[in-house]
Design goal:
The protein is globular. Strand 7, helix 8 and strand 8 form a beta-alpha-beta unit. Helix 2 runs antiparallel to helix 10. The strands form 3 sheets. The chain has a 7-stranded mixed β-sheet, sandwiched between helices. It has about 425 residues and is α/β, with parallel strands linked by helices. The chain contains 13 helices and 15 strands. Bound molecules: pyridoxal-5'-phosphate. The site of pyridoxal-5'-phosphate has 15 residues, from helix 4.
C-alpha cells in the first residue's frame, strides 16, 4: 500500500517546480473570467501527492477534504496514475457507439464488488443519481404497474444528491434550490432518520426511496441504528426500490466498502461516483440486478463519455484495490484514531461530532463559523471544508498515516484553542 510519510507542512517536494514568490500575483485575477458559483478558501494549489498538496508559492497542506471523497486513495496514487498512463497511450474515448476492451473488466469487477448483476457507467455523481431515478420510474411503470408519469420517489430532508434541475427540485437547501424552478414533480420529502414518516409517505404510486446512508453534505449525519435496515424492510414490504446514494459514503470511506454494510443492508441500486474515478477522471455508475437494470434498452439512456476506456481503466484499478478489503480496514482503524482524537479535544470546544471511518462532521461550539475555523486551519496548513454554518467536515485520503491523523487533530485543537 502506498502512503506518504508525515512531513512538515512547509517542505517543498524535490520534484515540484515551484512557480516562485512573485508568481502569486498572477492569481489575483483568478476569477476575472469565471462564474462565481464557488467561494473557495484562499489557496491556489499546484501539486499533490498522497495526503499532501502544495500551493503556487511552495507551501504544503494536509488535504483533509480529499475532493469530498473523490480522492480516497490520495493525490496521484502511483497504481492509478500508472493505469491512466497506460490507457492514455492506447485508447481514450470512442463513445458507446462501439465497444472497447476495457468495458467488460470494469462492469464485471464492479458488479462483483457490489454483489449485483450489472453496471451502467456515467460520469458525474448527479448523472448517476439521475440514472437511478430514471431506472426507478421505468421500473415503477413497467414492473410495478404504476401509471406512466405518476411514479413518486421518497427522499429525505437535508439531502444532497447533486445539482441538476430534477435533483435540486427535491433539495431542502435554499442555496441549492432557489430560483431554479419550475421544479420536477414526483418527490415526497420526509425527515431523515424517521422510519414512521418514511412508511407513511410510501403510497401505491411510490416506486423508490432515495437516500444517502450517511448525509455527507448535510454534515456527516449518521442515521439512528437500525434505520437503514428498517428502510430495507419497508421497501420490501411495499414493493418499492431502495436507491442508496453512496457517492460520498461509499468505496472505503466509512471503514466498509459501503456505508450500508454497517447494517448489512443491500439496496436495489447502488449509486456510486467520486472515488470510483480514482481522483483522476469523472466516473460514476449505478449497479443493480437484471430485474431493475433491464428496464434500460438501447437508445433509452446514455452518455458520450460514460464508460469511456480511460475512465474504465482507472475505475477497474480502483475496484481491484478495494477488492482486497485493506483500504476499508485501514479507514476503520485510522477512523478510530480520529474519533479518539476528537473525543479528547477540550470539552466546550465542540458542540458535537460524528465519525464513521475516516469521515467526521464536527460542530464547532461558540461564535466562530465553520468557515472561520477552516480559514484558521488553512493558515496552519490543513485544508478542510465547512458546511451549514458551524459544522466542518474532515474526509482525509485513506492513505493518511497515524502520525498525520494526529497532526490533523492537533492542528484542529490549536485552532479551537486560539
Ligand atoms: C451524496 C452525493 N450525491 C451526489 C453528489 C453529486 O456528485 P457530482 O458533484 O459528481 O455530480 C454528491 C456530491 O457531493 C454527493 O455527495
Amino acid at each position: 500500500m502506498f502512503v506518504t510519510s508525515a512531513r512538515t507542512m512547509h517542505d517543498v517536494p524535490a520534484d515540484l517546480e515551484v512557480a516562485g514568490e512573485d508568481v502569486a500575483g498572477e492569481f489575483d485575477g483568478l476569477y476575472a473570467h469565471a462564474a462565481h458559483n464557488y467561494a473557495p478558501l484562499p489557496v491556489v494549489l499546484a501539486h499533490g501527492e498522497g495526503v499532501w498538496v502544495t500551493d503556487v508559492s511552495g507551501r504544503r497542506y494536509l488535504d483533509a477534504l480529499a475532493g469530498y471523497s473523490a480522492l480516497n486513495f490520495g493525490h496521484r496514487h502511483p497504481r492509478l496514475i500508472a493505469a491512466a498512463h497506460e490507457q492514455l497511450d492506447r485508447l481514450t474515448l470512442i463513445s458507446r457507439a462501439f465497444d472497447h476492451d476495457r468495458f467488460a473488466a470494469l462492469t464485471g469487477e464492479l458488479a462483483a464488488l457490489c454483489s449485483k448483476d450489472a453496471v451502467l457507467p456515467m460520469n458525474t455523481g448527479a448523472e448517476a443519481v439521475e440514472t437511478a431515478i430514471k431506472a426507478a420510474r421505468r421500473w415503477g411503470h413497467q414492473v410495478k404497474g404504476i401509471a406512466d408519469g405518476t411514479a413518486r420517489i421518497v427522499v429525505a430532508d437535508g439531502n444532497f444528491h447533486g445539482r441538476t434541475t430534477t435533483i435540486v427540485s427535491f433539495s431542502t437547501d435554499p442555496d441549492a434550490r432557489t430560483g431554479y424552478g419550475p421544479y420536477t414533480p414526483g418527490f415526497d420529502i420526509v425527515p431523515y432518520g424517521d422510519l414512521d414518516a418514511l412508511g407513511a409517505a410510501i403510497g401505491d404510486d411510490t416506486c423508490a426511496v432515495l437516500l444517502e446512508p450517511i448525509q455527507g453534505e448535510g454534515g456527516v449525519i449518521i442515521p439512528p441504528d437500525g434505520y437503514l435496515r428498517g428502510v430495507r424492510e419497508l421497501c420490501d414490504e411495499r414493493s418499492v426500490l431502495f436507491l442508496a446514494d453512496e457517492i460520498q459514503s461509499g468505496l472505503g470511506r466509512t471503514g466498509r466498502t459501503f456505508a450500508c454494510d454497517h447494517e448489512d443492508v443491500v439496496p436495489d441500486i447502488w449509486i456510486l461516483g467520486k472515488a470510483l474515478g480514482g481522483g483522476i477522471v469523472p466516473l460514476s455508475a449505478i449497479v443493480a440486478d437484471r430485474d431493475v437494470m433491464d428496464v434500460f434498452t438501447p437508445g433509452s439512456h446514455g452518455s458520450t463519455f460514460g464508460g469511456n476506456p480511460l475512465a474504465c481503466a482507472v475505475g477497474v484499478e480502483v475496484v481491484r484495490m478495494l477488492a482486497t478489503g485493506e483500504w476499508q480496514e485501514r479507514a476503520a482503524r485510522l477512523g478510530e484514531r480520529l474519533a479518539d482524537g476528537l473525543a479528547a479535544l477540550p470539552t466546550g470546544a465542540l458542540s458535537g461530532f460524528r465519525v464513521r471511518g475516516l469521515w467526521a462532521g464536527i460542530d464547532i461550539a461558540g461564535e466562530r463559523t465553520g468557515r472561520q475555523v477552516c480559514e484558521a486551519l488553512l493558515e496552519r496548513g490543513v485544508l478542510a471544508k465547512d458546511t451549514h454554518g458551524s459544522t466542518i467536515r474532515l474526509a482525509p485520503p485513506l492513505v493518511i498515516t497515524e502520525e498525520e491523523v494526529d497532526l490533523l487533530v492537533d492542528t484542529l485543537a490549536e485552532v479551537l484553542a486560539g
